[in-house]
Predict the structure of Cyclase related protein.
Amino acid sequence: MPVFPGDPPVRIRILEDMDYINSEIETGLHAGTHIDAPAHLNCCGETVDRIGLERLTGQGFLISSKTVKIPDGDIAVLRTRWDSKWGLEEYFKDYRGIPMGLAEKLVDHGVKGVCTDGPSVDMPGETAVHRLLLENGIWIVENIKNTGLVPERFRIFVVPLNVMAEASPVRVFAVTD
Ligand SMILES: [Zn+2]
């Protein structure tokens, strides 16, 4: 699996395959689709296990070029279409992040979390948007895919491991009625 430049590779190794299979995984916690908890930029901030499940599920709304209104207290999903580059070298280069003005609006509307279909909510080499969101208790999910399949509104589930760490791999899925 491609990982952010400089991050450790993901490895799954079979330890035992005689009567049964027993394997181990070695991974950075920011590989693939993953959540950044407030502890990512502040060691005293919340770790993933401290984020209650009620903050990880709820109503999701899509942010695309057509978005006009941001609902209060829901989960934002950014459709930038950058996920079409997943697997290509350019995926981790020259990505755009979220404009600071939009990030400030998301904070003002008290969103629970922000998911993006790119590798970061920041521009390459920057951390200001991460900092603003995480300091306001808003978790971030990076590297989601298939944002083209969801309508404007949907139910969303973000399911991390219950780990005392600054990040975790997640499954993210939407339910539409
Ligand atoms: Zn991350």
